[in-house]
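Quick one, tokens below:
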């Protein structure tokens, strides 16, 4: 498993895909939400 940091661009891509799959919503406990928080911790 890679130890790369989550970039804001990558987090946005994950969140977009999750929202499309979930009918426009992203749960606050989803991987997409965790990715967004990790990307913002710079």
């Amino acid at each position: 498993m890679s130890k790369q940091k989550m970039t804001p661009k990558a987090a946005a891509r994950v969140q977009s895909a999750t929202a499309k799959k979930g009918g426009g919503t992203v749960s606050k406990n989803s991987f997409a939400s965790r990715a967004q928080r990790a990307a913002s911790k710079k």
